[in-house]
Amino acid sequence: MEPARSPDRQQNNNCRIFIGTSGYSYGEWIDSGFYPADTHASNMLARYAQTFGVTELNYTWYQMPRAAAMERMCRRVPQGFLFAAKLTRTLTHEVKQTCWVKEAMLFRQGISPLADGGNLLCILIQLPPYFTRTPAHRTYLAGLLDELSGLPLAVEFRHDSWAKDSVFSELERRHVTLVAVDEPDLPTLFPRLDLVTNPSLFYLRFHGRNSRGWRSGDMQQQFDYTYSDREL
Fold this sequence. Notes:
The structure is a single chain. With 232 residues, this protein is α/β, with parallel strands linked by helices. It has one domain (20-222): Protein of unknown function UPF0759 (TIM Barrel). It has nine helices and eight strands. The chain has a six-stranded parallel sheet with strand order 1-2-3-4-5-6. A two-stranded parallel sheet has the order 7-8. Strand 4, helix 7 (135-147) and strand 5 (153-156) form a beta-alpha-beta unit. It is globular, with a radius of gyration of 18 Å.
């Protein structure tokens, strides 16, 4: 499929490339030598920022972010460091129709220090495989994007029913990034595409190509994969 293109889009070869990881607070990184042996969990972000310029915030998927915590994180990183904050699971995986608008407002308030301080790369809206392109899901996603408008947004689909030109065109109209995902080539998974729907940000996530473990239900098995130099 070809990406939808805006007639006024200009060629820009001066892009900035950021490389980071999904999360940074891992005890096994001490054992592997990435963090010194005496590194406390509270100091991992500062250590991480000495090597990488961006990270995905995993914990914001598990719990609603709080502004005070975001402010503390900003003080621990150098100027120019960026965060991609995962949208909380109550807005992507455990949606309650009665209170999702309030949840979206709380999330916006919680990550406001990142946005106000110039540290927010984007909000990563990671949708589950069962979030298929039904009329109800289309309506919900449109409403969610409306509630979060004004923030840099990136959407990751996990079901191939969303691989439609009309979807790409709507994301481009909203200036929302379509996340490109490298993952196993399995039925119903969203395909590997390099479509640009937002000229300000192209977001690529490497999930690995472990076909056997992908649907095991075990995250360690699912993402147990080492890329070869040729694949990279």
